[in-house]
Amino acid sequence: MEKVYEFLKKCGTYYLATVEGDQPRVRPFGTVAIFEGKLYIQTGRSKNVSKQMAANPKIEICGMAGGKWIRVEATAVEDNRIEAEQHMLNEYPSLKTRYAAGDGNNQVLYLKDATATISSFTEEPEVIKF
Known about the structure:
- The protein is an alpha+beta fold.
- It has one domain (2-129): Pnp Oxidase, Chain A (Roll), CATH 2.30.110.
- 22% of the residues lie in helices and 48% in strands.
- The protein has three helices and eight strands; from the N terminus they run H-E-E-E-E-H-E-E-H-E-E.
- The longest helix has 10 residues, at 2-11.
- The chain is globular and about 45 Å long.
- The termini are close together.
């Protein structure tokens, strides 16, 4: 999981895919943190992505860095604890202008049953499950 975290941090921007009905939806994301041994992402409950993950928590993440790319398949699980929200805000202080722990909009989710595949054109894929 640490390797996946480091890769996503190196990407800066990665892309998160959800499903809305039968239509895939993809958007840029940039938040990733490890809290209590789990990999977390962050969004706002008022956003469509939040509603899509509530309806179908299966997501995919894709990003590229250093000539390699990563794909992560996972189930996004909401963590309503103030401590988890605050941890993410501490990792990304710029979010504090839009979100606060416990404000009802700040949403953090951890990735459950995740499979990450790191690939390149020159090496065998590396599969990491967490």
